[in-house]
Amino acid sequence: MQEDVRDRAYLNEEDVLRLNFIRDPSAYIYRRHYRQGLRSHILEVLADEDVENEKNGVIIDGAKWYPRAEPLKMLRIFRMRFQNLQEAKEEVERVKMIESYLAPENLAKSDEFLVDYELNGKREILLCGLQEYVKGAILDPWDQLDDSHLVSILRRISFETFEDAEEIGDEWTIEVRAKAREFITKIKKIILEANHVPDLAGIGNLLLTREGDIKLVDINNISHVSFDSEVRIDDRGYPVCDKSIESLSLLEQGLLKKPLPEDDVIYKTYLEPGRMEEVKAIEKQFLLAMEQETADAEISPS
């Protein structure tokens, strides 16, 4: 029996080339990205020449360098299963809706496509995406987003020396905070106008670029927003809507350096203390379930 790629912990290049909708031999090389999502496989799409230079090196000014191959695109293979074509189209429409608010400054643009995935003699709908590759460092809303932390991100992004980063740091952090205000405003518009919110809470879902832009790179888990008291969970049991809005509040406090507005209907609903305690308990249960799932996968026969 052929194993469903949606159930695999990860895919390598051989797995990708065996897919019926990928041409083999391919014009590109596929390499598993270090970050794998619960909802999609992520692979770097690389040029053969760049990989050769990475392996064998190139001579620059008489010295040999081994430049890491930079992805041309990121291939995402979604794990989501669809009952019919309409369900798949609705998922694509949600992605396009988020794109209409955030692109191009605040979203790693992705071209989605639906394919017939051949599995054990049957055909199923599979959603994939070819996404823009973003150079940047992870922006974690739970970090202390003071100036020194932002300057440390700048050094990681641009490989500036400590002295150079300190010299340009003040101007750069001001730019980051100004652009963060625009990003937060856009997210709030999505919530209030479209009643949806993208996943802002996942590790690595937000990147900060050298230009000071916040880029959303994970568009796999877009949740419906309602202003009642019910805490809703996604299909994995995670309270993603509540955690995304909590993440937004942390970004607003940390990057705008001011208290949250008391009359904000989003925060009044989702940051209510009793609700946050309920979310905390659900999140703890989710993490325990994930630990058990990981342990079961490690002891299961290959």
Would you give an account of this structure?
This protein is of the alpha+beta class and 302 residues long. Helix content is 42%, strand content 19%. The chain is built from 8 helices and 12 strands. It has a 5-stranded antiparallel β-sheet. The protein has a 3-stranded antiparallel β-sheet with strand order 8-10-11. β10 (206-208) and β11 form a beta hairpin. α3 (85-102) crosses α5. The longest helix has 33 residues, at 162-194. The protein is globular and about 60 Å long.
List keywords for this structure.
302 residues, alpha+beta, 5-stranded antiparallel β-sheet, 3-stranded antiparallel β-sheet, 19% strand, globular
Strand line-up in the sheet with most strands: 1-2-5-7-6
Strand-residue proportion? 15-25%
- Gyration radius (Cα, Å) is 21 Å
* SSE run: HEEHEEEHEEEHHEEEEHHH
Distance between the termini: 14 Å
In short:
The protein is α+β, with helices and mostly antiparallel strands. Helix content is 42%, strand content 19%.
Topology:
Blueprint: H1 13-18, E1 28-32, E2 40-47, H2 48-56, E3 58-60, E4 63-65, E5 73-78, H3 85-102, E6 110-119, E7 122-131, E8 137-138, H4 147-158, H5 162-194, E9 196-197, E10 206-208, E11 214-216, E12 223-224, H6 240-256, H7 265-270, H8 273-299
Antiparallel strand pairs: 1-2, 2-5, 3-4, 5-7, 6-7, 8-10, 9-12, 10-11
